[in-house]
Amino acid sequence: MKLVPTLTSGGMHLVRWAAYAGVLVLAVLATIVLVFAVQARVRLPELHAWHTMALAEEFSARRDGPSMSFDDYRKLEDRLFSDLRRRVLDDPAAADTYALGRYNPRSPTARLALETPYNRSYELVPPEIRGAALLVHGLSDSPYSMRAVAELLRDEGFYVLVLRLPGHGTVPAALRDVQWEDWSAAVTLAARHAAARAGAGQPFYAGGYSTGGALMVLYALRSLKDPSVRAPDRLLLFSPAIGISRFAVLTNVVAGLSFLPYFEKAKWLDVLPEYDPYKYNSFPVNAANQIYGLTQTLQVELARAQAGGSLARMPPMLAFQSLVDATVTAADVAGRLFMPIASDRSELVVFDVNHGKGWDALIASGPREAFGRIVAAPALPFRLTLVGSTGPDSTAVATFTREAKHKEVDVEELGLAWPLGVFSLGHVAVPFPPDDPLYGIAPTAAGPLGFSLGNLATRGEPGALVVPASTLERLRSNPFFAVIRERIAAGAAADRAR
Fold first, then answer.
1. Which one of 13, 87, 170, 314 has the fewest CB atoms closer than 10 angstroms to its CB?
2. Contact of 148 with 481, CB cutoff 8 Å
3. Distance between CA 333 and CA 243 in Å, rounded?
4. What is the DSSP string of 292-357?
5. Residues 173/113, Cβ–Cβ less than 8 Å
6. In 1-69, alpha helices (H)
7. How many of the other CB atoms lie within 10 Å of CB of 212?
8. Distance spanning both ends of the chain, measured CA to CA
9. CA atoms within 13 A on the CB side of 68
10. What is the DSSP letter of 231?
């Protein structure tokens, strides 16, 4: 006799409710996606050629792979930029008409973007090579963001290669399809080339800003498992992207309707005028999704290395981080990177907020409290330096340093002070000196645009600008860059003496 399983009336009731709940969840998700897609279409301005075109000559890990030579990577870049010029700037139907437009062939911004080396990979070679370094920029940035650090290392006798990550330096549309694996593969081939320039017994550094920092840590972790990969002798990290909000996943779901012409703007979080020669202002959904995927992979690799006991072989790290950072918190850098690696040869330098002139009462307490819990530890396994005010009513700045596994604090006055009106650093400010000609708060001369994007004092009626006022108000350079210069020079001298 064949038995047919049956459900009781109670079981059928549960099945129906589960089905109703599933339909409700799907309906809510569909509504969210639709609302965000409609909102993107209404909120964002019209897309231009640099938001929609695909450039054929971009590096792809799947097509080209990390086995490509760096020389071939540079040749591919040459074809890529020729394609950009031909299809955008030389085409009146595609070119920008905005006076400062990066894609307006008559603008000073376009000349900087195309005629200087800083949107492409470039090399700096000292008269005598005493080491080598690979430096990598951040998401939506360009190799320009590593210019000051590259010149500093060159002056220390390092051959320096500054890599352009795939999807950068050309058009923001290039970030719609790039994968973080493309960035990682490009880092691998560039590291192989740079490390080969360091002679026997000479140090090899791997440094990165923001996304570049995450890629450098991931590269170092993978060198622990692969003896064919040259392990860095030191990691230099600037605002390293250690953890990113899960919001990136939701935005990627929202972009699901972007295949429809009516909702093509759903691929974008921001669509803004492109007036910066070395950084995209427009930001696609895929870029957020890729940095989220990269940081998730980095956390998995860190956990595996910790479980396998190999973190003790990680190179020493020298990291510079703003206490307040809209992208990555100092507490995350300390707790999720420096604490598990626990190297007494590593140092985390944190730039504090301005405690003088009453700023304390206006600065949000969240990041300060989270980092305060790290500082309150009886002993830390790494060296910690805080760059901050010498007193509650002072704008003068000093370094406050705790050696690894010690509680005592050494204080060194710097002869520096907070600039008028500046209450904190931030994510984008850390690797730029204050006299940077484009982003500096105190450029030594008129910048290449006739003004500096870093010292604009914006005053006017809200809503009058075509870009958010916060974009221009954000600090773009580091008034305490001298600390970075001193720490890197000291580390290089110590490594050469080993």
1. 13
2. yes
3. 8
4. HHHHHHHHHHHHHHHHHT-GGGSPPEEEEEESS-SSS-HHHHIIIIIHHH--TT-EEEEE----ST
5. no
6. 9-43, 49-52
7. 32
8. 84
9. 22
10. P
CA distance linking residue 71 with residue 308, whole number of Å: 36
Cβ proximity of 278 and 118 under 8 Å:
yes
What Cα–Cα distance (Å) separates residue 493 from each residue in 162, 316, 328, 419, 485? 21, 14, 30, 31, 12
Residue where the block lists tokens 């850390």:
430
Per CATH, the number for 21-226+236-305 is 3.40.50
Which residues, in sequence order, are CB contacts of 161 under 8 Å at separation 6+? 70, 121, 122, 123, 132, 133, 134, 135, 190, 193, 194, 197
The residue among 303, 395, 404 whose CA lies nearest residue 353 is 395
Domain extents for the chain? 21-226+236-305, 316-429
Q: Which residue has the tokens 């409710």?
A: 17
Strands of 50-186, DSSP E: 122-124, 131-136, 158-163
Range scoring the smallest mean pLDDT among 35-39, 211-215, 372-376: 35-39
pLDDT tens-place string over residues 345-368: 999 999 988 887 666 666 666 666
Q: Is 299 exposed, middle or buried (0-12, 13-18, 19+ CB in 10 A)?
A: middle
What gap in Å lies between CA 272 and CA 289, rounded to an integer? 20
Task: Tell me what pLDDT residue 74 has.
Answer: 97
Nearest Cα to Cα of residue 137 among 168, 178, 180, 110: 168
CA 218 to chain CA centroid, nearest Å: 14
Place of tokens 């492409």: 120
Placement of tokens 């996304």 in the chain: 211
Number of Cβ within 10 Å of residue 312's Cβ equals 11
Residue 3 CB-density burial (10 A; 0-12 exposed, 13-18 middle, 19+ buried): exposed
Tokens of 48: 């231009």
Read off the DSSP letter of residue 475. -
Separation between Cα atoms, residue 477 and residue 479, nearest integer Å: 6
* Beta carbons of 95 and 88 less than 8 angstroms apart: yes
8 Å CB contact between 111 and 103: no
What's the one-letter identity of residue 366?
G
State how far Cα 123 lies from the chain centre. 20
Q: What is the pLDDT of residues 240-276, one digit of tens each?
A: 998 765 544 555 555 454 444 545 777 898 899 999 9
